[in-house]
Amino acid sequence: MTTPQDLLIVALDVPSSRPVGQGDLSLALAGAELLDLLDAQAVTLEDDRLVPSAERVTGDRLLDRAGAQLLRQAPYETVEDWLWRRGRGLAAAYADAMKEEERGGGKSRHWLPRRGDRTAPADTPARRHARDRWASHEPVLVALAAALGIQDSPPAERTAHAATGEDRVETVLAAVGDALTELEAVRQRRRIEDDAFDNVWRAP
To answer: In terms of Cα–Cα distance, which of 8, 38, 12, 45 is closest to 121?
Structure first.
């Protein structure tokens, strides 16, 4: 089980203060992958740059693919650049992988199930692992979920749980937060531009 898998399940199963968009989740999943790669010693951080180690097999297809995509030439890649590059379409990739596992190889037509879907989620080992990790308030998972607006506790308590004390983890979490803020700023600019365009056509 990996942090990205757990985060996807939490995003599907736990109520959030706002709908979790595909772009937001993709960025957070890329950050979750990076945290697992750091734990596996497949990459190290020098300031905010990702320095790959010898390629390591984690046993997870998507995580191994992420490790294989690390840039291996100096000056290497920043955490922020990694999030945007690796994050493209990542939510759909993880959702498809989960559906394949739960349906024995079948494909899902939608990148994520709709929250209004009354179908009960499958009780799989992956889901049980994610639920146990979430129930234990594991700091990294809680911090990633909180960045997406997914809440299970008061803000002050979430902040305390999210304090990991590890510089490399804090660097990645901060980059995820910054990327999500930037993505929302892009959306707001587009909304303003669209509104201005509409007003031009509506003007007498």
So the answer is: 12
Read off the pLDDT of residues 76-127 as tens digits, 9 standing for 90 and up.
999 999 999 999 999 999 999 998 887 764 444 444 555 445 455 667 888 9
Token pair of 31 as six digits? 């950050």
Q: Could you tell me the residue range of the domain that residue 175 belongs to?
A: 3-112+121-202
Alpha helices, DSSP H, located in 47-162: 61-68, 79-86, 90-102, 125-135, 139-147, 155-162
Q: Which of 80, 64, 83, 69 is nearest to 25 (CA)?
A: 83
- How many independent structural domains does the chain possess? 1
Q: Is the pLDDT of residue 202 over 50?
A: yes
C-alpha dist (Å) from residue 160 to 10, 137, 163, 182:
19, 10, 6, 25
Provide the β-strand partners of residue 192: none
pLDDT value of residue 75: 92
Q: Which helix (H) or strand (E) holds 27?
A: helix 22-39
Q: What is the pTM of this model?
A: 0.82
